[in-house]
Protein 1
Amino acid sequence: YTILVANGPNLGHLGVRQPEIYGSRGMDDLPGMVASLMGDRADGVALEFFQSNSEGALIDRFELAREQGVNGIAFNAGAYTHTSLALADCLAWIDVPCVEVHLSNIWARTGEPLRQQSLMGRRCVGVIAGFGILSYALAVQALVEHLEAEC
Ligand code: DQA
């Protein structure tokens, strides 16, 4: 399976940006986490990475993923999670299963009610939030199990 790990705005400096909220680990740790979660099954998973601060560039990448036959997307839309009807519309038609990912538990950020709403969630297979970089690894594992169950 080819899984696209996609990050939206302000997620290009993971480990550096507000580590007290988003953790001190970077995306470099992800392949090792996937390997330790999935063991030998990780050998059948090819990860592709994409990050953009631009809504349109993310949509372009997802349209390309559809054309390329990418099997699944683990997507942290950053603040677009809460605002982007355009990204939600994209996920609604490309027919590539997506898992919504967040480093922080957006529902526990009670001082910021806007963050507790997601426009992405209704277009996704599921949501994993609150585990830092591990959220992405869990999303990859869940996507693979979802794809296997669909076969
Ligand atoms: C985030 C949560 C969003 O509210 C925020 O805008 C981000 C990161 C997370 O991973 O916890 O940029 O998606």
Protein 2
Amino acid sequence: MTNYAFPKDFLWGGAIAANQAEGAYLEGGKGLSVVDLLPTGDKRRAIMKGDVPSLTPIEGEFYPSHEAIDFYHRYKEDIALFAEMGFKSLRVSIAWARIFPTGEEATPNEEGLQFYDNLFDELIKNGIEPVVTLAHFDVPVHLVEKYGSWRHRKLVGLFETYAKTVLERYKNKVKYWMTFNEINMLLHLPFLGAGLVFKKGDNVEQIKYQAAHHQLVASALAVKACHEIAPDAIIGCMLAAGSFYPFTCNPEDVYQGMEKDRESYFFIDVQSRGEYPGYAKRFFRDHNLDIVMEDGDAEILKNNTVDYIGFSYYSSRTTSTDPEINKNMTSGNVFGSVANPYLAKSEWGWTVDPLGMRITANQLHDRYQKPLFVVENGFGAHDEPQEDGSINDDYRIDYLKRHIAAMGEAIQDGVNILGYTCWGPIDIVSASSGEMRKRYGYIYVDRDNAGEGTLERSKKKSFNWYKTVIASDGTDL
Ligand code: BGP
């Protein structure tokens, strides 16, 4: 229960990504994306970090993105279910390689453009506002082969062309845009975030921050294009958020927490304030990083800042300078977090911290003074269907309830939040593990880790719960 209602125009909904839902990985003229090279399990983790054995799919290997949950063919059925829950918005991403299969054709792939026209039309017909991410972990593989992906300046112009193409095409259908999903993921999973492949002897830090600069300029150019092409639309950035707590009140721990937060804030500082913060310049100096910036880049960044801050929030993080404490890292956190003794963890080692949602939202508000949009939040869990097929996912309802309440408290604190698109309202492929078994949905999809199953959809207990939440403007949790 909340003791007040969320705003009437609050964008309740859900979020998915092309590569985790669509499947049809080479259909309709689509080219290969980096995510199409990610198998499941430990191999996936190594590849996401940049140790990439092959830039073509390996014979006999299972790649979950290739079919995913077949949203490409079943989106109408899925959207009908979202509409039944009362969704006001659905966050989707456009697969770059559906529009430009190699990333550098002279003209876009009409079949790819048509697919998203159909998708957006279907959403609009159902009263659901499309919220569109331009890049959700899916650089065309051709650009990795030819240019080394985002390490090369060439990607900036190619991305700008792609962004302009889709903005022009969908300007009358889409009002909410976002540039790079979890842009700070580039530092932790550089192949996933930016298509970066490393060889022995590479100066990894130099390559990552150069790629980051290119993405930041490309993001600003997409903002510029959006403001010119679709002046009634708004465009934001997207941060994998979750503040670092110091493990103790030792100032060394507190300072380290600040530094760790800045590793992520650095991106948003540039996208939202329009310039590199002093601490980033110092970091480059101290680490002998020589980031090549072209004449005019500073102006591009300064003049094209984002309209809102989109973020994902799954958990807080905790940091310590004590080597003994550091032996106890949480397994599920790519950001490098030690276990927090006050908080429980999910089966995948993700810390559960609803109050952290309120803390993070307030910190982002204090820092940027721009509207926020919670574009991902949810609980990845293994669901066990009962004999009659029903799924009683009370654990998921409990997680979501507490996080929505915390978000409501943040709104009462004065934070302007545009909406809430929970992650994976229908079960989709997990980004970090590639598993289907790690489910977030209100809608169950019959498919297992090996890709077996009918792909049939069914409602979990949480389906009606979320429907009530939306219908009651968040008062009935
Ligand atoms: C974010 C990504 C999503 C997503 C989510 C949940 O990092 O933006 O693509 O999948 O996390 O993570 P996972 O699927 O690994 O549980």
